[in-house]
Specification:
Number of helices: 11
CATH topology: Spore Coat Polysaccharide Biosynthesis Protein SpsA, Chain A
Strand content: 15-25%
Strand order of the largest sheet: 5-4-1-6-8-7-9
Helix content: 40-55%
Order of helices and strands: EEEHEHEHEHEEHHHEHHHH
Structural class: alpha/beta
Radius of gyration: 17 Å
Shape: globular
CATH superfamily: Spore Coat Polysaccharide Biosynthesis Protein SpsA, Chain A
Distance between the termini: 40 Å
Length: 251
């Protein structure tokens, strides 16, 4: 079973434009994420899925500099972007990651993949007890194609796996519960406050060549630096998804 991590990334984020290439210690956040993912033992390949927009040329350039394949597709129909990327590159099983999680824990990626491989489930993803910044999910191309063929809602096109979430009667889904409730911790990057938090983590925890950023170390940093924890604690989880639901209602 070959697993490809597909990281979606674009420069035209509404809340923090250009966030994936914002730099800490002279290095883009997307580069940190790529290194984190490379430490996952069960991932065979990494592909960057960005858009055809001229603004996203630098993302494609960084990906190629990192030695990765790139697919460029629709900006707003993310489901189509994933489908076309997987079809073009012959991807059988997709670990979906988003470019706003630069410190995603490779141990959690491996945990999600292992459960998917051993359970026979159609779809496995981290639940709300995981820290926001460790979100990942895995599914097959076959089920991605089912979603691509049947998803009609705007939210289901914009959010790649929402059709799978919305139809539990069609897909055998497993939602992972973490060993501890880490839902209060946030090291995703959607807003300027988020970037400042991640910047502090990277600069103050430090990073040696053969090490990775681990969730336990990040949690300990938050617990011992409450002033940093509070910087983005007020931000609502999954703001973008909630906005999409509102747009569905308007339509």
């Amino acid at each position: 079973m070959k697993i490809t991590a597909v990281i979606q990334a674009r420069m035209t984020s509404h809340r923090l434009p250009g966030k994936v290439l914002m730099e800490v210690k002279g290095r883009p956040l997307l580069s940190y994420q790529i290194e984190q993912v490379r430490h996952a033992r069960k991932i065979d390949d990494i592909l960057i899925a960005t858009t055809k927009n001229m603004e996203d040329d630098p993302i494609a350039q960084l990906a190629r500099k990192e030695g990765l394949e790139v697919y460029r597709g629709s900006e707003h129909d993310v489901l189509d972007r994933y489908y076309q990327a997987a079809q073009k590159h012959g991807i059988e099983h997709i670990l979906r990651l988003t470019g706003d999680c630069p410190l995603i824990d490779p141990i959690i990626c491996d945990y999600v993949i292992n459960l998917y491989m051993t359970s026979g489930a159609d779809f496995v993803h981290t639940g709300p007890t995981f820290a926001e910044g460790n979100d990942c999910e895995i599914f097959s191309f076959i089920n991605l194609e089912k979603a691509w063929n049947n998803a009609k809602l705007k939210s289901e096109r914009e959010h790649c796996t929402l059709y799978l979430h919305n139809h539990p009667e069609k897909f055998n889904k497993i939602v992972l519960t973490n060993d501890t409730d880490d839902s209060k911790y946030r090291f995703t990057v959607d807003n300027l406050e988020d970037f400042l938090v991640v910047k502090e983590i990277i600069e103050r925890i430090g990073k040696r060549e053969s090490t990775i950023f681990k969730t336990d170390a990040i949690k300990n940093f938050f617990d011992t630096n409450p002033e940093i924890f509070k910087l983005n604690a007020h931000i609502t989880r999954n703001e973008g998804l909630l906005k999409s639901f509102l747009e569905d209602k308007k339509l």
